[in-house]
Every structure is written in structure tokens, then in C-alpha cells.
Amino acid sequence: xxxxxxxxxxxxxxxxxxxxxxxxxxxxxxxxxxxxxxxxxxxxxxxxxxxxxxxxxxxxxxxxxxxxxxxxxxxxxxxxxxxxxxxxxxxxxxxxxxxxxxxxxxxxxxxxxxxxxxxxxxxxxxxxxxxxxxxxxxxxxxxxxxxxxxxxxxxxxxxxxxxxxxxxxxxxxxxxxxxxxxxxxxxxxxxxxxxxxxxxxxxxxxxxxxxxxxxxxxxxxxxxxxxxxxxxxxxxxxxxxxxxxxxxxxxxxxxxxxxxxxxxxxxxxxxxxxxxxxxxxxxxxxxxxxxxxxxxxxxxxxxxxxxxxxxxxxxxxxxxxxxxxxxxxxxxxx
Length: 334
Description:
Layout (H helix, E strand, L loop, with lengths): L1 E5 L9 E4 L9 E11 L1 H8 L12 E2 L4 E8 L11 E4 L12 E5 L3 E3 L6 H5 L2 H14 L7 E4 L5 H12 L3 E6 L4 H6 L4 E4 L5 H4 L3 E6 L3 H7 L3 E9 L6 H6 L4 H21 L2 E4 L6 H12 L7 E6 L3 H9 L6 E5 L3
Parallel strand pairs: 9-10, 9-12, 10-11, 12-13, 13-14, 15-16
Antiparallel strand pairs: 1-2, 1-4, 3-5, 3-7, 3-16, 5-6, 6-8
């Protein structure tokens, strides 16, 4: 099969189109013909080697973390899917590889795709949808009338998280550029802060939850907009010890993560707020819940551009510019 691979870990390294063996297929797997995939900044970080200590892919490996496609075969233990089903998902860590024509995915990581979406639209959802769900529903436990601050509202996670937070009944603030104010408000943002002219730390206060996706400076400032007892959830780091334990990392790596998170944990303790690092996991059941919300019209995908499969490297480079509104998708089947 055709696939885009990483030959070696390298910052801004190239992707190479190659002929790869067909996926190995197990009793708990679903073999999927990939119709569409999507680009995430996670792809850049994996290619650059930023996560190789706890996501040790062995080059050459296929990149890509989102898929929508058609089931070709199911394993002997699978009853919930059959050949011909249209599915979407985010394969679990160390089984990623959606910049390809086919993939074998653990059935627990898949769900039937939302019927109201095209393959390209559905492919834009899994990683950002699961990230937002796990941050706001699972960890944050957002309730009606709470105040939620979602950074980078016009990005992939931001466009989804704004809509989910509004569905949960929250008042939502976000940051974005001047050009994207109308977009984030159309998604439900109650407060849209132009980061080029305003400092969110001077505008916001008394928030129940912050979803941080930016740099260390922004993370530190985010503590100050929370009320005592509030929650600061970061998807951009630093990783903490509970994260290390969840991956069963060795004592040295746990120590490293304790050092990395010491500064923000100290700030959070002084302010009386809770800090946690979130590295989303694959979860088909949550994707089923998300599909219901999408088909009910509560959440809509935001797709900036669709690139043909042959232009996957160009699509990744475009996302790395930081200018995309919502998600960038790859039409694999074309």
C-alpha cells in the first residue's frame, strides 16, 4: 500500500511516499480502507522526536492520527462492526499511521462515523473531539453556568471545544486573531479576546476551567484567571507525574516529569487551583457520544482546507504555519 513515512526523527524532517506492507490484522482488529485523514500538530511533534521517550516509534514508520473510512474486514472477535460500515477514529498510541491507504485498528478505538458528515468532515473530528471531550467532560466535569476559557479558539481543538463547552451550558471565553473573531463567536464564544491587542489576563477573572494549548508563558498567566478551586488543564505540557504513572514510565522519567511540572504546580498551589496535563487517548465509546452530538446539530466540523493524498507533506507544512482555521484534511481515497 502507499503511505507517507518518517525515515528518521528530525525537526521539520521530510515525509516520504513509500510502498509499505499491508497492515497485520488481529482477532480484535478492524481493517479499514482510509478515505480521509487529518493533520494535527501531534504529527509534527512525533516526527520531530519530541515524544520518543514515551512514544517510541521505530523508524521508518507511518505518520497520522485521524481517520475516516470503510471497513473491509473484521477480526474473529469483532461483532460491533462489519464489512461496508463507515467508521471514524483515532488509533491508539503506537498503532497510529493514517497517512496511508489502509490500516488495522483495534475495534475499541473506532465508532460509526456521524451520518451527517462526509468522510473528509468526519476525519477532522477524532483527535480534537476526544481531546476536548476528555478535558471538558471527563477531567473538567464542566457544569451549566460555569466559566470556561479555551485558548486558540480558531484552531482544531479550539473550534470543537468551544462548541462542546456551550453544549454543556458553560459561558465560554477564547483568544483568537482579529480575522477570526467572527468565526469563534459563530461557534458560541461569549467573550472573544483579540490576542494581538488584548491581554487575556487583564480581561478574564473568576473562571472555573482553563484549557491551555499554548506556551509556558501563557500557561503561567492562565493560573491567574482561575478562581480558587478552579482547574487548569494543559494539552501542551508540561507533563506531570500522574501522566508518567498512567504510561507506567520508569522512575527516571517520572523524576524528569516531576521536575518539568514543578514550576506550574507551585503556582497552582499558591492560587488554590488544580493543574493536570492531558494527553488524549483513543476511545471509541466517546466517539459514539460525539457522533450523536454532531448528528443532532450541537457541534459542526470546521475544515479549513482539503489536500489530496499526494500533497500530505504540503498539508503538514500548512498546519505548521499556525494559520489554519479548524482542521486540515487529506482526501486519501482520491
